[in-house]
Amino acid sequence: MAVRFISIFTLVSCISILSACESGGSGANSEGTGGASGAGGGGSTQNPDDGTDGSTPDTGNGGDGSTGGSGGSDSSGGTTGGNTSDSGNGGTTDGGGATDSGGSTSDGGNTAGGGTTANDGGGTAGGTGGGGTTDDTGGGTTDGDDSGDGGTDPGTGGVVTIPASALFLATSEERQFYETTFQSDVTAMGPASVAGGQTAHDNLPAIGTLTYAGYMELLVGDGIASANVAAPATLVLKLEDLSIDGSATGFMGVTADENLIQQVVNYDGTILITNGSISEGLWGNAAVKLDIDGALDSGLNVFTVDGTLVGSLYGANAEGLRVRGTNTGLDGSMITTVDGNTGIIGVGTISALSQ
């Protein structure tokens, strides 16, 4: 009987002790929900030594914190021991409740870093502290001053600067004159100079002088550079010896500059008209033959001509004169150069009317 009494007493004592242990441990286990899983108090088996009284700091070992941090909202060890800091060792995994030392005061993960700061028990840094990083209100490096420096170079505003051309470019007034007057006058002079048919050699006056004014046109090139130009020309026919002399100057034309932009260009230089003569032609006409020679400088290229032009006087009284020469030998002859290189194109024409 005595043995049975002792056994019952022993059984009751064990039950009391287990209740106390269960009371202390479950409270600690209910702490972790504020710590976003993995924070929590000290685990379900925490405080096996003296966890029955939560009124004082519970410094016992919390056992294996592997089950810690899944408890309720009173993250301080339950209703019995939750009013003071649960500084027990949260085990080797969840580290003892993170910064959730007071349960309702500091709710686990809401204080940056969770269990990494309030782990007095010696756990392994409380894991990730129950998600404390989600309350990272600092912002720090992601909220820095990104004002930057606007720079000191104002740029060119998209304006493209075209280098100055070496060509002798016409002024705006010269260009207007060339486009509105000069070209049309040169074109019109051709048919005007041959009006009335060829002049009969026998009808020429015996004495006197005939002065002709018109235009000389030249086309010179070597396949790389070319000049298609015209200039006012003046010729003087001395009837006593039927000789002709004169010159052409003030050449203008259109050509591409270094940037392949078409430009109206002035050509510096004079082409001399020499050795001109009047003779009776095959059909009795007053045939004309003369030489031209000189150089023209565009500022970018130098063109030279050395040729013989042939043609006739026109009109009943020799009112017109027209001669032509080419490098093909079809009409007269023409030798040209471009910057000292032999040209492959050479055509020269003079059309004029007596004054």
Automatic annotation (TrEMBL):
Signal peptide range: 1-20
Domain of life: Bacteria
Disordered: region residues: 23-159
The keyword Signal appears for this protein: yes
Keyword hit for Signal: yes
Record keywords, A-Z: Signal
Biased composition regions of type Gly residues, renumbered to the chain: 24-44, 60-81, 88-100, 110-142, 149-158
Name of the protein in its database record: Transferrin-binding protein B C-lobe/N-lobe beta barrel domain-containing protein
